[in-house]
Each structure stands twice: as C-alpha cells, then as structure tokens.
Amino acid sequence: MRAVIAEDSLLLRIGVVKVLEAAGFEMCAQVADAEGLLAAVEEHRPDIAVVDVRMPPGFTDEGVRAAMVIRHQYRRTAVLLLSQYVEERYAAELLAANTSGVGYLLKQRVADVEEFAEAVRRVAAGGTALDPQVVAQLLVRRHSDPLDRLTPREREVLELMAGGRSNSGIAAELVVSESAVAKHINSIFTKLDLPKADADHRRVLAVLRFLGVVTA
Amino acid sequence: MQLTTWLRLVLGRPFRGAGHRTALVAAGLPLHLAAVPLWLWLAGAMAGVPALTALPVLLALLVIPLVIALPVLLTLVVTPLLTVGQRRRYRALVGKDLPRPAVRGPGRNWTSAVRRLTGRALWRQVCYHAVAGPLFALLDLAVLAVWAAALVAASLYVWIWALPPQGWVTDLGYTTQAVYITAGGLALLFLGLRLTGALVRLETRAAEILLGPSRTEKLARRVADLAESRTGVLDAADAERRRIERDLHDGAQQRLVSLAVNLGLARSTLGDLPEDARKVIDEAHREAKEAIAELNDLVRGLHPAVLEDRGLDAALSGVAARLPIPVRVAVDLPRRPSPTVEAVAYFVVSEALTNVVKHAQAARADVTVERIGETLLVVVADDGAGGADLAAGGTGLAGLAKRVASVDGTFSCRSPAGGPTVVTVELPCAP
C-alpha cells in the first residue's frame, strides 16, 4: 500500500515513516504542512494520508481542514489524523460524511508499533480507527439515557467497538471468548433499539450514531 | 591630629545635618508668612462687613461680595503655588519628596478644575497654609532666635576681644559672668539643635498629612497598585506555564515518542535476538511509553495545550473522559474568558473531579460552566457520600479556594454528611 505523511515534527515524522516502511507501506511523500500534503496527494493518489492536526503556519487545525479536502476530492485516499490531544469536534467533522477510511489517533500511539501499523492498515483498507480516548470523550458528550441501561461490561465492549475493533480484537482485549463478545453486542443492539446489520462498518456507523457524532 | 579627629567626632556628630535643618526652618519663615496678608485681608473684610452695611444698599451689594470674594479667589490661586514652594523646600533642604495627592480626572479643563476645587486635597492645603502656617512661622522664629542667642553667647569671648572697648561687652570683661554666659550659650546650642530637630519632624509630619494624599487616597492607591501587580504576577506565571508546556511538547515529548518508536521497531524487527536482549528491549520500550504518559500528565497539570487552543469545553471533556466514572460536562460560553480565568476554572474542575473520584464514592458527576453577566459560574456536583470539609484535612479544597481567591473569585463547597457534594465557584471576568 502507498502512503503519504504530513507532520511538522521531524522526529515524529521519521518515526512514523520507519514504522510504516517496516509494515510494508511504500512512502510516496513526506511533507511538513497542509499545502505540501494536498500537492502530494494530488500527485501520488496514495491509499492513505497520515496527517498531523496542528501544522504550520497557524498551528491550529490545518491538518483537519486538509483532511476534509482529501475526503471530498480524493475518495480513494483514506485519512488518519494524528493529534497531541483529543478534540472530539474534529473527529465528528471527519466522521460526519462517511465513516469508512477514517482514523483519529493520539500521537503517542505511534509508539505501540504493531498496533499503530495495524490501525493504519485497517484505515487504508476502508476501515475505522478511533483512539480509545476519543471514544471515551465522545461518550462524555453523549449523555442521553440509553447508555445508562448498559452494563459496565457492555459499555467496555461498545467503546472498543466504536474504536473500530473486530469481535476477535475485542475478545482479545477483554480476555473473553468471541461468542461472549457477540452476546454482549447483541444485547447492546437490543438495548439501544438498533436493527441488526450485516456489514462490519455499518455496525460502527450505528455506534457512532449512538455516540452523537452522526445524526441519522 | 588625633585630638582634632576626636574633637570633630564628639562635637561635630550631634551637629551633622543641623545646617540643612536650620535652613529648612529659616526658609519656612517667609513661606509660612507669605499668605498671611491675605488672611488678614479676609479677616478684616469679614470684620468690616457690619460697617459696610451702612453703605447704600446697591453699593453694599456690589462691594461686600467683592471684598470677600477677591481674597477667596486669590487664596485659590495662591494655595497651589505655596504648596509647590513647600514641596521644593522639603526636597531641596532635607531631600524629602512629599507624596502628591491624586488629581482625579485628567487634563486641565473646566471639569477637572471644578473637581480640584471641590476635592478635599485643596482644602487640606488651605488648612495647612492658613492655620498651620502662621503657627509654624512663630515656632520657626523662636527656634531661629534660640540659635542666634546661642551663637552670640557662646562666642562671647570673641566679641570681647574683637569689639572696641566700649559698651556692655567691655563692662563684662573677662569676669565670671562672662564664663556663665558662654556656658549658657553652649547649652543653648544643644537646645537649639534639639528644638530644630523636633520642629522639622513636626513640620514634615504636618506637611505629609495636609499636603500629601489622605489616608483613604493612600489606601486606594495601594490597593490599585497591589491589584495591578497581582494580575501581572498571575499572568506571568500563566505565560510561564504555557511556555514550559510548549518546550516540553516540542522537545522532550517528541524525543520520547521517537525513542519509543525505535525501541518498538527494534523489538518487532530483530527476530533472532537472544531472550535476554529481547527482555531488555521490551523493558525499555515499556518504560519509554510510561515516560510519555507521565510527561503527558505533567503537561496537563501545568497548562494543557488543548486549553489554550480550544478553550474550556474541549479541555474539560478531556478531563472528564479520563475519569473512571461517567461525568456530564456542559459548557456554555459565548466568548472565551481571559487565559488566567480559564486556567483557574480548568484547575478547579479538574481538582474537584479528582476529589470526587478519590473521596466521594460517587457513581456520577456533573460539571456546568456558564457565564452570567460578568461572572463565570462553575459548578461541580456529585452523587457521593458528602462530608467534605474545607477546614479539616481537605488540603485539596483549601488549595482550590486559594487559587480562586487569587483572581477575586468566590468558592463554596456544600457537602452535608450523606451527600451530595456541590462545589460552586464564581470567577469575575471582564465583559
């Protein structure tokens, strides 16, 4: 798979490039600002763009705005945002139109090399990767009652699910069997009045709708 | 040589500065008396009013206001000049700067002139020149007379020797009486010294009280100065925290992430390592990640970047999301408050929530931040056991109260036994 990276901190950029190259990605371009990123995406049409939220010249949300442009103009390029802290509004903006091929992770997750590479691969393939902290923060925001009906365990499962994990991933994380996870998920759907869906990413869509990121 | 040094020490020391003080007293005499003709005129005019009423009515109506108004007007003109003269006297002769009373209202227009007339400062000055002045003139005169008498008497033998052998000096001659007079003169010198010192102290005190700012003014000025300097200190501390946060983020944090990435790569790519080496790399990788987490916590405690970039709403939901209990955060702010107020609100909420988790055994908590007029209202409520006490042991609460007080906010914590606990903070913020 082919990737570009936009990150103004040289050290972190080198780190991400190393991780992605080790994971078998082909790095087409490495840039340090949003303008360079858009030019690189236009030129290389990569499978995924890994983008820092805060970049020169303004150091505010240049990366988010560039990501929105990429999402609209280059539909075959997935976007993974890297951020120093969680700003759920960015995640909401990014996820609003379409939840496939999107990710939002804290920068420190790059250090977990394998998991980070896995997340990039998942997003590049059209999946989703949300940082656990993003999910937690979205849950804080979403204070409607259906959530209170969930058991703590179901809540945990829901959070992992919202992070884009598969059933086996959730099972491994919680150290339970996959069938137990499936049971929990069914229970969640029942409690939240969500209809059963066949494709995996529609499950995520349903979760995000519940989180209040996407209003149906 | 030794003898002269000794003499200078013993005789000279008490008289050090006496010249300047005496000059101050001497200069005071004309200054204090300068306005006396005016007062006499005014007093005379007042006394003359009954006599003037004998004049034809029209003329009396014209003359009486004139003879009274004129000295009053002159007084208003002369008073500031005299005050300037007095200030110069103290500055030039004893190096003392009398503090100026506050002039309310800027500029030299009519309103400020009226304000000066109706202000108390001017009337205190008039009081100084009119009442204290003549009194001090008398005292000045007395002290100067003591000096003159002391000098003449102490140097009697010089006169006897220098003056032609006629008159009272010759009559005295070199008699025992002359010895007494000389001794008396020397004693008078020391008395003059004491009197001058006392008079200078008295005059200075009176000038400070009547020509300087009043106590209220001084306090008001001091409060304004303190408030300003406190704001400056708080802002500087806040700016410093933000700078440290930036430095840590741009430097140590990036470097640690890079280190952790490299260690992670080493772990996953070097397949044929001996078990020991793999263990060491694993350990190092874990520690690097822990260091990143600790540094993040530290930065959050200093001044989180999210607070500066995105404001209270984003920063507080970040705090809430990291807690083990569900916390509802509602922030309603049309405009962002000042960075200092924002920082205080942020730390109040984050500390209060930490307390909730640690002590309250609460199942959930609610945070609301809203702006009511010029007040930022912050409420943190939980459904826990209550019983939090500001006085006993609750150092966290006391710290919060102090931090709130530093920006003139109010802090209250209602926590009856059995709960719930509600922490309410009001922070003033400019519109």
Question: Could you explain how this protein is built, in words?
Answer:
The complex is a heterodimer of chains A (216) and B (431). Chain A is of the alpha/beta class. Chain A is 52% helix and 14% strand. Chain A is built from 10 helices and 6 strands, in the order E-H-E-H-E-H-E-H-E-H-E-H-H-H-H-H. In chain A, helix 2 (34-44) runs parallel beside helix 3 (62-73), helix 7 packs across helix 9 and helix 8 (167-174) crosses helix 9 (178-191). The radius of gyration of chain A is 17 Å and the shape is globular. The two termini of chain A are 33 Å apart. The mean pLDDT of chain A is 82. Chain B has 3 domains: 14-211, no CATH class; 216-303; 311-428, Heat Shock Protein 90. Chain B has 15 helices and 5 strands. Chain B has a 5-stranded mixed sheet, covered by helices on one side. The two termini of chain B are 76 Å apart. The model of chain B has no long low-confidence stretch (mean pLDDT 83). Chain A: The modification 4-aspartylphosphate is found at residue 52. Chain A: Residues 143-214 form the HTH luxR-type domain. Chain A: One of its GO terms (molecular function) is DNA binding. Chain A: This is Two component transcriptional regulator, LuxR family. Chain A: Keywords: DNA-binding, Phosphoprotein, Transcription, Transcription regulation.
SSE topology:
The complex is a heterodimer of chains A (216) and B (431).
Chain A: E1 2-6, H1 10-22, E2 26-31, H2 34-44, E3 48-52, H3 62-73, E4 78-83, H4 88-96, E5 102-106, H5 113-124, E6 128-130, H6 132-141, H7 152-162, H8 167-174, H9 178-191, H10 200-211
Helix pairs in contact in A: 2-3, 7-9, 8-9
Chain B: H1 2-12, H2 18-33, H3 36-52, H4 57-94, H5 110-118, H6 120-154, H7 156-162, H8 167-172, H9 176-211, H10 215-269, H11 275-302, H12 305-310, H13 312-321, E1 327-332, H14 339-360, E2 365-372, E3 375-382, H15 395-405, E4 410-414, E5 422-428
Parallel strand pairs in B: 1-2
Antiparallel strand pairs in B: 2-3, 3-5, 4-5
Helix pairs in contact in B: 2-4, 2-6, 2-9, 3-4, 4-6, 6-9, 10-11, 13-14, 14-15
